[in-house]
Amino acid sequence: MNDALDQRALESVTTIGREFYKGAVFGIRTSDRPELLEDAYGQDVYQIILITEGSVILSDGDEKTALLPPQLACLSYANPMKKLEIAGAKGFSIFFIPKVINYGLFNSFPQAAGEGSGQDDALLAERLLIKPFKQGEISNPFHIAVNPALEERVTDMYRGLRDQFSLQPNEFWPCRGRSYFLELLMLLQNLYAFEGDTDLKLALPTGDELAEQAVRQMLLSYSDSRLKCSSLRGETGRFAFSARFRTAAGMPCKEYLKSIRLTVAANLMRNTMLPPTDIAERTGYADRARFERDFRKRFGKKPAEYRADFPNPYG
């Protein structure tokens, strides 16, 4: 854990192992309501809030804005933040510190990842996961309106995380819980990119609403092995859709969907100890052999060999 983190802030964002990994400390905590951590201001603490009912008031000087539900917000307690007033709102909160993503990588994080090696690329990928929480072009907190499909997807990830960390049903609870958390961070990163950030390995299509909508749907549904490009084109003809998507995204729709799935799979291989069979299923691969082939073609190694190149995510 971060020794410099104030003890009160640390306690408010941690989960303690009970029967399995008794006494072990994990820098992530869930809450079934939107709430703020008064003791965390100025600390290296981050928070995800989903507001499903009521409203949250954002104050920036004399200006006030109501975030009407459903709304998703990413907060950084380490940076200047607009004042938030939460009253009568329903939803949930996830609190975490960066090291929970991967303790090994964050223990020796350079100021800027280098280029050229798989580890360098992974360092950059892990840093990108917290970009929506860093104050920059988009103010703190970063927030977006949520459509029903996105709300359902985010809520499912939250429930998976919450149930594993609260119930701790078996020895796999930290790994399975963090896998839901990592998927949620990757989804937020891509949503953030649609809002104007472009520092991503996978180029996002711009200038074609049909292609943008198709990619948004991929980001929500990549875990469904039944998802096909044919289901993303609506009333547009197959050839017209294929041409428009390739022009906007720089690659065919099928390859783009595969890239999303393999990007998520690589993240889960680096930052969890989930078996490759579980990761294949979580990323929309019904066929384990095809997952292995695609992964090796993309990253030059089998999933287990790829994992061995990175530090133990639990430190």
SSE map:
Blueprint lengths: L6 H6 L2 E2 L8 E2 L1 E4 L14 E15 L2 E5 L3 E6 L6 E14 L6 H5 L10 H11 L13 E4 L2 H20 L5 H22 L14 H13 L16 H12 L3 H19 L4 H7 L5 H12 L3 H6 L7
Antiparallel strand pairs: 1-2, 3-7, 4-5, 4-6, 4-7, 6-8
Helix pairs in contact: 4-5, 5-8
Describe the protein in words:
The chain is an alpha+beta fold and 315 residues long. Helices cover 42% and strands 17% of the residues. It is built from eleven helices and eight strands. The strands form two sheets. Strands 3, 4, 5, 6, 7 and 8 form a six-stranded antiparallel sheet that branches. Strands 1-2 form a two-stranded antiparallel ribbon. Helix 4 packs antiparallel against helix 5 (173-194) and helix 5 packs across helix 8 (253-271).
Q: What is the number of helices? A: 11
Instruction: Output the structural class.
Output: alpha+beta
Give the DSSP E fraction (strand runs of 2 or more residues): 15-25%
For the secondary structure, the number of strands is 8
Report how far the terminal alpha carbons are from each other: 10 Å
Shape: globular
Uncertain runs: 109-116
Percent range of helical residues: 40-55%
**What is the rounded Rg?**
20 Å
Mean pLDDT: 86
Query: Can you summarize the main beta sheet?
Result: 6 strands, antiparallel
Overall tally of structural domains: 2
SSE topology string: HEEEEEEEHHEHHHHHHHH
Brief sketch in words of this structure:
Residues 241-309 form the HTH araC/xylS-type domain. The protein is α+β, with helices and mostly antiparallel strands. 42% of the residues lie in helices and 17% in strands.
